[in-house]
Design brief:
The chain contains six helices and no strands. It is mainly α. Helix 5 packs antiparallel against helix 6. The protein starts with a helix and ends with a helix.
Length: about 150
């Protein structure tokens, strides 16, 4: 069998890519998660009229984190992730899922060396990068302010 025949054979037996449908599912699920966040924000504005947008945004973020952690704990978020692919990873719920999964996986090793240590292996880099980028943005804003 020469190279061309082998290439044709591989092309014939390889499964066809379903990337288009995967992208649609990711878009729909990610959009639904964001829609849930918007709905929670509207509810919180209605229920808590004295809160400003920053406080409402914090409540929405905390609510989405809690919902994702609960769904991870009962095994539903994994099914959502399997169906949607990257659509469930992008919003803040994906971060909550990864932290909760690590906590659940290593709980048998104890609270300190199991749950906490492995949760922060995932959360640590995200927090460090978030703080570093926030500092760089603040520094950039300060420098631009000096020249204006």
């Amino acid at each position: 069998m020469d190279r061309q025949q082998y290439a044709e054979y591989i092309k014939k037996i390889s499964p066809k890519s379903k990337i288009g449908w995967s992208l649609v599912r990711a878009f729909i699920v990610g959009g639904l998660i964001c829609l849930l966040g918007e709905g929670l924000g509207a509810l919180y504005q209605m229920w808590l009229p004295g809160y400003d947008q920053t406080q409402i945004g914090s409540l929405v973020s905390c609510s989405l984190i809690l919902i994702a952690a609960i769904l991870t704990g009962i095994g539903v978020y994994d099914k959502i992730g399997y169906f949607s692919g990257g659509g469930s990873i992008v919003p803040i719920t994906g971060f909550s899922n990864s932290i909760t999964s690590a906590a659940m996986e290593f709980r048998k090793e104890g609270i300190i060396f199991g749950t906490c240590a492995n949760m922060f292996k995932i959360a640590g880099p995200v927090i460090v990068v978030g703080v570093a980028v926030a500092m760089l943005c603040g520094l950039g804003y300060f420098i631009v302010g000096l020249f204006l």
